Amino acid sequence: MTKNTDEPLVRIRDLVYARGERPIFNGMDIDIQRGKLTAIMGPSGTGKTTLLRLIGGQLRPDAGSVLVDGQSVPELGLRDLYRLRRRMGMLFQNGALLTDINVFDNVAFPLREHTKLPESMIRNLVLMKLHAVGLRGARDLMPNELSGGMARRVAMARAIALDPMMIMYDEPFTGQDPISMGVLVSLLRTLTDTLGLTSVMVSHDVNESLSIADYVYVISEGKVVEHGSPDDLKNSNSPWVQQFLQGLRDGPVPFHFPAPDYGEDLLGKAVQGAVQ
Amino acid sequence: MMQTLQGLGASVLGAAERLGRGHLFLIHVLRGFPALLPRFGLVIQQLFSVGVLSLLIIAVAGLFVGMVLALQGYNTLVDFGATESLGVMVALSLVRELGPVVAGLLFAGRAGSALTAEIGLMKATEQLSAMEMMAVDPLHRVVAPRFLAGILAMPLLAAIFSALGVLGGYFVAVGLLGVDDGAFWSQMQAKVGLYDDVLNGVIKSIVFGFVVSWIAVFEGYDAVPTSEGVSRATTNTVVHGSLAVLGLDFVLTALMFGG
Ligand SMILES: Nc1ncnc2c1ncn2[C@@H]1O[C@H](COP(=O)(O)OP(=O)(O)O)[C@@H](O)[C@H]1O
Ligand SMILES: [Mg+2]
Questions:
Q1: ipTM value
Q2: Residue of chain B with shortest Cα separation from A81
Q3: Interchain CB contacts (distance < 8 Å): A and B
Q4: A1 has a pLDDT exceeding 50
């Protein structure tokens, strides 16, 4: 199935996408190499989740191309799109487990939907996947009995259930305590290496991303501002990238949302909408 | 003035667009029905939850409505010395009208709102998106079994409503008001027709089940994925579902018994 292995698995060119009047992407180029862990970083609201949905075919770009394993995602019909999606997993920000069934059945869900395997084999597969994320003992718990980090690990087990070629992680570390974060960070790296997966991770957690990624893209205002290995990035001379990586309050990204002059505003003289 | 017109136009357009989306949604869901046959367990499961949700309230309501019908009917019929016809009156009112209509209203309030809330919450928590990304069509996997279960449950619930209503009427008429036991049943048997009355009632209940379930699953699927959006969708299901039942009841009655 898999094409020429030198070619990137995901190739995005001149991507344009707008939500109503608001442009989200404005000519973006991204390559995701096979077997590597690529991190896409950017401030909240830049469209990282939107990007993953464009790759997964849940949204269609206004212009530009999104190729996954040589197939143009926006042009696929529903049937082909679903066939492609069986080979890619996606981890939603909060795990998005099915809340009315337990952990075991959640991991078994894609297997039961897409294969005709006997129940005994499904059981073995599910236990293997759960073991890989360290939650074999949690198989009987319901999703509402899991901590946020555990829910994400179950969702990882579910995402690798069908042995996909790629997994996309949406902010896998956000809102985790340091221990749980460490577990997730090492799990992401291990899954990528041991299963030969291509991993794409979007995140705004700078240190964790730089510590495990093979390649990093930094996006802002609809464009790629910088890309390279984590070391390239740390040495980047773009003031914007430095502000983002170091979390400085003010810099090229201003602390203040555009507003009328402060003094005039307090005196009630500023005209609403008159923004410098 | 201009603004009012613009606002009016926009809301008409919005409603028309939503109606269109509702129909496309329906077609997509109906296409998933054949695939449910080999996995009928999914439907049974939903039938159980939809049916059990509404069973108690429908049984109790049926019993009381039948009892009230008997009391009210007796007062009218006694003036004409026709109290033996009480059984017919109760049965006809229930089978033709009140069974399907009241069961439909209760179904919208109990099962319909629950369906909307469940699907809306699945959307808000990205469970539906996650299914799409697992290459499972949520319209076929989540919506279709619930929709079919709603369509199947409604005639059963209306029948239970009518049956318990007749029973309630019987208790009041024979036990309380002293109507002749034999006359109550024999007149009912003689005058209630299988086709004219029972079948038409069943058709009504199937139509109501279809429309209320459609509204319920569509409102859930189309809900704004926030807690406020889901609560608004749930209210919409009850209001629109109930109005649809009453409006369609008029149309169907005119078609069936009008001529
Ligand atoms: N369903 C939607 N409708 C309209 N705008 C949206 C929707 N989802 C996201 N957006 C907007 O698109 C932008 C990008 O969103 P998102 O991809 O979620 O950002 P990120 O994941 O980087 O935080 C946000 O500013 C958000 O306001
Ligand atoms: Mg996001």
A1: 0.82
A2: B135
A3: 52
A4: no
Q: Which among A85, A93, A98 has the least Cβ separation from residue B135?
A: A85
Q: Do B137 and A113 touch (CB under 8 A)?
A: no
CA atoms of A93 and A133, how far apart (whole Å): 17
Tokens of A60: 């269609």
Give the CA distances from residue B223 to residues B18, B128, B212, B241, in Å, rounded to whole numbers and listed in that order: 12, 12, 16, 16
- Mean of the pLDDT values across residues A108-129? 92
Angle at B101 between CA B97 and CA B105, to 5 degrees: 165
Among B126, B134, B146, B230, the strongest candidate for a mutation testing the A interface, having the largest count of A CBs within 10 A, is B134
Q: Give the mean pLDDT per block of 10 residues along chain B (259 residues).
A: 86 89 90 87 90 90 94 89 86 91 94 95 93 92 94 94 94 88 86 84 94 96 93 95 95 85
Pocket test for ligand 1, best of A19, A48, A200, A201 (most atoms within 8 A of CB): A19
β partners of residue B20:
none
CB count within 10 Å of CB B41 equals 10
% of residues, chain A, pLDDT over 70:
93
Q: Which two tokens stand for residue A25?
A: 């992407």
Q: Show the tokens assigned to A27.
A: 């000519």
Which residue lies with its CA nearest to atom 4 of ligand 1? Answer: A19
More confident residue, A244 or B64: B64
- Separation between Cα atoms, residue A135 and residue A126, nearest integer Å: 11
Whole-angstrom CA distances from B7 to A171, B3, B17 are: 40, 6, 15
Residues in chain B within 8 Å Cβ distance of A58: 129, 132-133
- With residues binned 3-state (H G I as helix, E B as strand, rest as coil), the percentages for chain A, rounded to 5, are 40, 20, 40
Distance from CA of B45 to the nearest CA of A (A): 12
| Sequence-separated (6 or more) residues with CB below 8 Å from residue A250 | none
| Dihedral angle sign, alpha carbons of residues B98, B103, B109, B113 | negative
Q: Which residues pair with A219 in a beta bridge?
A: A224
Would you say residue A271 has pLDDT above 70? Answer: no
State how far the Cα of A51 lies from the Cα of A72, in Å rounded to an integer. 15
Q: What is the DSSP letter of B179?
A: -
Minimal C-alpha gap between A88 and chain B (Å): 8
Q: In what order do the strands lie in the sheet with A10-19?
A: A22-32, A10-19, A63-68, A71-72
pLDDT at A5 over 70: no
In angstroms, what CA-CA distances link A126 with A110, A117, A201? 10, 12, 24
The per-residue pLDDT for B238 is 96
Interhelix angle for A119-132 vs A103-114, to 10°? Answer: 130
Mean pLDDT, chain A, rounded, equals 86
What token pair was written down for A90? 């996606």
pLDDT surpassing 80 at residue A49: yes
Distance B94 CA to ligand 1 centre (A): 52
- The pLDDT-based confidence of A250 (bands split at 50, 70, 90) is low
Cα–Cα dist B225/A68, whole Å = 29
